[in-house]
Write a structure and sequence with these properties.
single chain; alpha+beta
Amino acid sequence: MNSTPFSLRIFVADGDPDGLRIVDKSNWIGKALVFPRALLPQVKARPELAQTGVYLLLGPRPDGEGDMLYVGEGDPIRPRLESHYAQKDFWTRAIGFTTTTAGQLNKAHVQFLESRLIALARAAKRLPLDNANQPAEPSLSEADRADMEVFLGHMLGMLPVLGVHAFEQAPKAPAAKAGPVLTCKGKGVQATGYEASQGFVVRAGSQAVVAVTTSFTQMTGASELRADLLKNGVLVDEGAVLRFTQDYVFSAPSAASDIVLGGSTNGRTSWKDAKGRTLKEIQMAEANA
């Protein structure tokens, strides 16, 4: 994704902000339909769902806090959504991507988009996937592949605005839109990270404690996140410490320092710069500048 400015138009089709929303983007042939599961019986009559497209299903994890994700494609979309409405329990909202004019996407196009989205979600490791397998990319001409990469780029740019961050990976290094590199130390471990527009990024190679506090085990969200990070290989056990194998984006500085130190922490004071200033002190100084 690039950082080119863009605008979105969100049309609230039934006047309910929580109902069906149709989203299109300037200078793009695609559009998104965003709606809660409960509205599928009404929404399925929309002409957009009679088109070929790709879709996302999101909803709470059955085994704990947080969301999970399913990525699918349909030619057309409607029968696939009807099947999931009857057979998949977890999802509570859907986002379908089609085009402004029917026929601009074919089966191979959406299979390519589905495959790329699943691969990106698995690489980012921000949400568990309900997809069992990684579908193979279909054979596309060089021109069609280039077109679909552009289409995918528009989708990825829109999704965070729609509240979906499953495909976002950490920026490679602190940039103009990121804060200074900070350090979190304690209990024999050390981690580095920085604030960015996506959240708080802990850098690859950072350490986290093996043993957590009793209070940490009672923090359901943090405990489940730690288990996910270990399961997905973001954290690996090296005996004395855990190590981050990749840059990872946390929702907030405290969420990051909770995992690093294995307890309930205040990230605004746990993360410090090279001069020993806490993140809170840095931000207070910036606010007063």
